[in-house]
Amino acid sequence: xxxxxxxxxxxxxxxxxxxxxxxxxxxxxxxxxxxxxxxxxxxxxxxxxxxxxxxxxxxxxxxxxxxxxxxxxxxxxxxxxxxxxxxxxxxxxxxxxxxxxxxxxxxxxxxxxxxxxxxxxxxxxxxxxxxxxxxxxxxxxxxxxxxxxxxxxxxxxxxxxxxxxxxxxxxxxxxxxxxxxxxxxxxxxxxxxxxxxx
Length: 198
Hints:
Layout: E1 2-3, E2 6-7, H1 10-39, E3 61-62, E4 70-72, E5 78-86, H2 89-92, E6 97-103, E7 116-121, E8 126-130, E9 140-143, E10 150-155, E11 161-162, E12 164-168, E13 175-176, E14 182-184, E15 191-197
Parallel strand pairs: 3-5, 5-11, 6-15
Antiparallel strand pairs: 1-2, 4-12, 5-15, 6-9, 7-8, 7-10, 10-12, 13-14
């Protein structure tokens, strides 16, 4: 046999093999002792691992149901819609928009310059708005005109799927402000959507 570039004597090879056998014998003895210990354990039968919890669909706070707004949920990595709200006359003051915020799981705004609100109008080409407005106001808004019926979701460079709010439109009756102001009237209604990155 060769070792370190030269031939080893028969006696060296036999000595090395005996050391190897001793090492294996030691490991074999440990394995036998472990087996004997395990065989003394009480038999509890086969225990199945606990079943994974059933997935729970997140609750979507759709306060705009009375205005015909429905939510269409995506089923994998997504921008999840957490809140849909029709603005009161006092909140809206004659505007006609869909306001959009996208937050992380801690409730902080997402800073992503590729993030856009996307509104599909009457099944036509989408209307887009960057979600980059300053703190203190919703991150973005989409104009909502009288004949529009809009479906709104969120898109970004991450390519994640999104929940959608369907049926957003302004063709609702007058709603008076606190002093009788007609700030919500046909053609002048707004909605607020809050998404969360999952």
